[in-house]
Amino acid sequence: MDLFDMDDVVVGPPDECSTPLKEWRLKLQAGTLTRNDFIEFFKKESPKYFDYQNELDTVKCMFKEALAKEEIIDVLVEFMLGDNPKSALEKLRLEGNTATVCGKVFKNGEPTYSCRECGMDPTCVLCVNCFKRSAHRFHKYKMSTSGGGGCCDCGDNEAWKKDHYCHLHLDNRKNPLESKIIGGAVLERSEICFSAILAFCVNYLEIEPNASLKCLDGEGLELDGAHFCTVLYNDESHTFDQVIQTLTKIAKCRHKEAMEIVAAIDREGRAVVKCDTFKACNELKTAIENQMIPPSGLLTNLRNNQSLRTSVLHINSVACQQFALQLLSWFQEFLVRHYLFRKTFSELVQQKQESFCIRHILEYDVKLWKTARTCWHRLLISGMLMEYENKMVLAQEFSRRYATMVEDFINDDHDHAFSIVSLSVQLFTVPSIAHRLIAKEGIFDKLLHTFYYVAIEKFILNRTLHFSKNIASLTFFKRANYILYDLRYLLSLKPDVLSNELRTGFLEGCKALMRVLNVMQGMESITRQTGQHMDYEPEWECAFNLHIKLATTISQVIEWASTDKTLLHKLYKMTVRALVSNNFIVGGEEAEAKSVAGHVANCLIYDVSVRPVSIHLPLTRFYAGIYLHLGTHDLSYDCLVAETEALNIKMTPREIIEPVLCTHAMIAQVAAGMWRRNGYSLLHQLYFYKNVRCRVEMLDRDIVCLQIGASLMESNEFLIHALNKFNLIGWAQSNYESKLAESPLDDEFMRQLSMIDEFLELLIVIIGERWMPGVSLVTEEDRLRKEIIQLLCIKSYSHSELSRALPDTTGGNSDSVFEDVINTVATFKKPVGADRKGVYVLKESLFEEFNVYFYHYTKEDKSKAEELQRERRKAKKELVCCPPPMLPQLTPAFTSMANILQCNVFLSICTLTMDRALDIRSRSFSESHVQKILHLLGFAIQEELSEHYPFLSFYERAQQFGILDKLDELARCPRLEAHRDFVLWTIKRYKDMQAKQAPAAAAGPSGSQKKTAGEEPPLTSEEQARQEKETRAKLAAERRAKIMAQMQSAQKSFMKSNAEMFANSDLEQDSISTGASSSRGAASSMSSTAMDWEDISDESLEEQGAAALVIKQNPACLGPNRAHYQSQENSFKCILCFENCSINPDGPPLVSSAFVQTSRVILTTPSHYKGKCGMHVSCCGHVMHYQCWQEYYSNEESKEQRRLHRNRLALSQGHNVEFHCPYCRALSNTVLPVSEPLVGLIPGGLPGVPPAVSSESYLPLDCFVEIMRTLAGELSAPAGDNTMWQYPSVLRRSNVIGDLAQFERSVQLIAKPQLHATCMEVMTSFNKALQNAMISQQPNAVTEGGVGGEAENPYLVFDTCSYTLESLEIYMYTMRKPLKVEMPMRHQTCTTNLVRACALYSSWAPQRPELASKLLDTIFNQKGTSVLEWDCFRMLVQLSFGVLNLMVRENEHTFLPSGSMFDFYMLQTMFLANVTKAVICFDVEKQLDSRRAKEEAGKAPTELSQLAYVEQLPSKIQENMVAFYRRYNVPARMRQLVQQKEAEEKHNQGHSQSQNQEQTVVIPCELQHLALMLEYVQCQMRAFLRCACLFYRCLTDVEFPDTFPTEQPDRFDLMCQYLGLDADMGVYFDMETVYATVMHNFAAHPHILRQAEQCSLRYGDPVEVLPCLRPLPELKPLFEDYSDLINSVSDIFCPNNEREEMKTPTMCLICGKVLCGQSYCCQPELGKMSVGACTHHAHSCGAEVGIFLRIRDCQVVYLGRGKGCYVQPPYLDEYGETDQGLRRGNPLRLSQYAYRRIFMQWLGHKLHEEIARLNDNANVAVTQWHHM
Ligand SMILES: [Zn+2]
Ligand SMILES: [Zn+2]
Ligand SMILES: [Zn+2]
Ligand SMILES: [Zn+2]
Ligand SMILES: [Zn+2]
Ligand SMILES: [Zn+2]
Ligand SMILES: [Zn+2]
């Protein structure tokens, strides 16, 4: 129960009575309150919140919105709602009467969802909240991102076919409209407030130059005070750079500030650039306006040459405007709260006399700037669109003002989204509103009328449109075309029944349409050029754009008319009238009689080759469209002809088809090469004529038009007309050949042959292309089906390719139809592999329906499809040809078209062609003519067989013409060899027909018998020939197979010998095989597969005991029992000069190209490596002479220099020039030396020579430690002369017992190897390349150890070596590859070359005693860091290379690290260090927990693998272990300290008298715990041991033993064995050995003790623990569902500006951070350059590489140093396709496979390479990647 209701409390009046609230209330009571009281209040108050600072010539303004809200708006609310507005609003919310429609206005980039099943049209969308709560989420939906400004249609009855409401808005429906809270009084007060708000905003927001002077009547107008601002406005015609330039030049802003201002202008539409006196401000304004900005070329716009828009305003007036904006945004949100508020609002704006009436708001939109406009638009949407009545009111006002608004919009230059006309989509797409507007407001007519006058009238010349000379009209036209979009919305849904009023309104619109079509008929006509080429390419795009924009409307109008007989009837007459009035081509032409085959026709004489023709015949095509629907309403041409003639409108079929026939004759002539001189523009036009985007209302209608002609005219006459137009009357005469003999065989003749082809093809199309509703008895689905079948005959299509290849007839709504149809004709083949898409494959049986002459095929389509069909039929052992398909039955209106196939002219053409084919002397013979004639005959036969047409008696007619005999002859004709199968097919079908026609004759023994006998021979001979062919083919195939087998085996051996050449392909196979195995685990994600692998390791460890026996015999690469390497042949071919070369110290030096890069891939804990990065080397391993390479390189270098010079860049210092490996094109930027095995350089170490001395002759480990300690001390002592470091003196001082020879043996001191001088040069340049790379990433980096810069730092090389090996180890581990698995060649050669180079380098590299001393101190003297902080492997490499050579005098001897005893000791030392670290870090509780968890998860309790081992250890060692654990183990110590403290406290509480006796708590440690610990340690040693194995293999060239596993993870014991280490862990805890001492030394480091005490005592800095096993690198896990990802960033803000939403949120896939990509708002500086946020982030996050996901357009970007590329995103739709840019909108899901591929590329350091590869292949437009 509440204490009391706040509403009941009456707040007493405050002491002072002058608060505005009080004043208003008093005035209200007195009845004197007016809206002016509020307006004055706003005006007075708002300047208080405006603040600006002049800072170095740049002004910074800001409006304190939060304060203004509190002090102005909240007061207003309190006045309206009463004393406790908060609780009133809360109650209002609980009443739940917001609205039954959602109406949420979308922000830019917000995801929207449309339902493909239920949406009325594609503009119907849901916001994410509604979508998630609606039934549509289970339907087939599409997703896209809003451009801002639209609103959610949830709850709109007219937007959805079903499921109109989401749960939320369904609930709202139940609530009553009235409210208990909003009473009459509240409404009365609200009304005054609302009107004040509206009046204030309308008054102040308008942009007027110098407006402030007028607005602020007389107040504070002293012109010399600094009270004025110069304001700069946004426009779309100036580029960012132009405005920045203006600001820096004229307003003298600094570049950075100028960029900020420009960003603000772009965001808000305006910005204050100066605050000063009126004079100063006005001068700036004039200067900016006078600034001439050169047009930027690309933007041809009306406003382009205009100056930037500026104004000078009083500061107070700017303040009022800022407040007005805030007020409007608040008001919009306030209106959403209740229906009654909106009601009040709508009543207010309907008052016509007010300044804020709708009319005014609509019309003054253009006078506002961007943000102000958006605020009003949103207000209108929230205030007027939620209730149907209001919507209607707005729609009516909108349509009444339409013409003015559109004109304003066209002359304005803001984007459509920022214009009030963009509201049309909210109004015109509501069917009932649209219909009402058409019926009552004549909106259809008005739109077209406006379009006519605004857009096209000025281009009309001689009653026809001519855009030709107005190139600039393009932009202008684009804007005008929005009218046509509106028209499309308006007509998108046709009503079921038309009222008279609607019909009349519609017909009015049609009249306007006729007028537009009339001027389009014959537009941009062309005349054939002869002699000269065209002077210029005529403009043609405008006309096509107009067509494309209008085509949908035309289809819609025809669609509307098709269902209403009256409408159709009237529209038909209207069209005929328009056609008659248009005299393009058919304006009173002469006619002439022509005769063919005894038939005469009066042909129109219009010579296409000399007179103008046009592609554009929209009127004729509209007629054809209307005509198709006559039949369904029992109307016909004949009955309508009588009617029109009564009106004195005469139009014969001849006149109807004439323009189309002319156009087609022209197209044929173009194909025949007669229009060559007309240039490309004509070819472009013809391309689009046929293209999927245009053809529905172009080519398709033309064919229908010709079919209409064919059905209305007498067949012979029709053919004669067509022949005449193609100039082929002569060819159709029988004396053609004899006449031909007289004339020469010139070009003219060839053209004629080609024209014949074109004519026959047109005839095939007219007869065959009848999958058109109205022409034959088919539906729209059949039409689509036919289209898809024909497409799939060309190839298999992916889903996106297919939907692109099909016309978008009903604005995307055909989508579900498409889906239904496609599934009946094709099967979807799921994608295989990562790169493939899923494809549709045509069902086998449907190949029967293939038509090779399909009219939408291009030439290439045709030949591809034909070839496929022939192959298919060959495979099925059918006749190899492409016979015509069966045709659907014609509708009654078109039936007579079938008669063409039996008329005299047709048959005479057929026989003439066949005769000429048979006549050897004939000159006009062509195979393609015959092929087409056969196709036509095939049609005829099939039509006859179908028995659809009783009048058709093709068989009899064909017999009269002796067709069959001629066919038989053709079958034997050698000239027609290629088409024999087609002839045979025709004969077969002919006989089918014969059998059907005359069954008696077929059975009878007479003529037919004889005939068949006559036929047999050619058939059998044909078959014989075929058989022969087959056997020949079979033999050939066998022979081929044999050769192939031989070649394959040759290839295999070749592959073996050239393994490195196939390194790359191996690699690919690797990734494929891992992909397969991961997909085998189906749902298993990356991490879980890695887990599986770890599990195996447990099991394998159990087998250890058995394996231990085997181990003994295995070779070790280090230590007293080391093996020696087996010599391999080292000969190569230089890839540049192709000469043989072998590695030896005397030969010319060899190198291999390599790539160095900075890397952070394996540095996954960011806290640890702040700013640090490693250096990684990759190397393809292809060998070349150093000399050869230098030549190659200097060439590449000068190429690069030329390139940079072209781009006006200088080769920066420290820039590594990139080049490609000349052999494999691998990206490279330096070279690595290729050297022989190191052991080969050791005199005693040559292969085959056994170790000369026994193990006793070496110094022992403790001596080594002692020597190192001494050396460290010596090195750090103040430098005297460096002879004191030399080993004899060091040995002496370290008190080591033993002689010098023993030492020399132990370290393998050798005479300094003879190295080629250039070899050192290579290493120096390699070192330089590393430094360059490092410096460019970390300009002020002082490389670890002190010195960067110019000096050569050998430690950089050594660290590169360790980093490269460590990343390789992690890479292989992630790929689940043990060491023994065959490594890709490039990894193998890379590690070998690198390690050998380092070893050689160490023998003569500049010495760095200070670094060595630090290193030795750290390791041996416990100075510096503790083991916890070490990367033990890295230190091992440094130790191996960087120390020993300090002890020899230069130029005489050297230590070459190659597996000496000291090398072994170093390994042992670091091994012990790592073991110590593992023991110290071991946490017994954690391990026990995880074991328990495993058991609980149902896994069988695993045996403690080490328990048995621990149990058999001597008790002394066990005790040592326990002691070591208790003393040093950090978690144990911590627990002990905590418990001790607790005990002490308890103790202190219990007995107040203190006892000094210290109670020691003893941490339990049982054998089981020890076993766990050993297991843990072995596991933690993995990375170190694997790296060490890789390292020492390269150093010693001792191969891994065969016992190394290839399927399972590497084993601790085996690796120890190989490295010569003792795998018996007990040994290391034996106090007798030096091991234990070393470990105690490591463990006793003060940092470790501090770490242990840290939690209890809290002192000192925490130690940064580097775990033994680095955490595995991984990319950011992504959402499964792409829309979740989009939502996650839908309200994310720019880090630089909290008010601005991110435009292109871009996620770093390495760390997951979301950045403002490629945007002016975020351009941090890197070095001295400002770069994009991603580039900046990549620099530190990925050490100059970055992987980014641009979330809104679903694209993945790889960024490298100033370069980048787009790669396939990891999100795929159900068809396995990506959707870059979200164009298709199918739901997308994360593909683990694709994501893993990106991951592996990153992990393998292949991003730079991938970027280079992709930029190499594609001619990518130069992208400014650094702005990304
Ligand atoms: Zn919604
Ligand atoms: Zn909803
Ligand atoms: Zn749905
Ligand atoms: Zn060479
Ligand atoms: Zn290569
Ligand atoms: Zn930003
Ligand atoms: Zn990152």
UniProtKB/TrEMBL annotation:
Gene3D superfamilies documented for this protein: 2.10.110.30, 3.30.1390.10, E3 ubiquitin-protein ligase (1.10.10.2670)
Q: Does the keyword Kinase apply?
A: no
Q: Where is the composition biased (Low complexity)?
A: 996-1011
Q: Which domain of life is it from?
A: Eukaryota
Which E.C. number(s) belong to this protein? 2.3.2.27
| Region (Disordered) location | 996-1036
- A Gene Ontology term for the protein's cellular component: cytoplasm
Segments forming domain UBR-type:
100-171
The terms under GO molecular function for this entry are:
ubiquitin protein ligase activity; zinc ion binding
Q: What does the sequence similarity comment in the record state about its family?
A: Belongs to the E3 ubiquitin-protein ligase UBR1-like family.
Q: What is this protein called?
A: E3 ubiquitin-protein ligase
According to its UniProt entry, this protein's organism is Drosophila pseudoobscura pseudoobscura
Its gene name is Ubr1
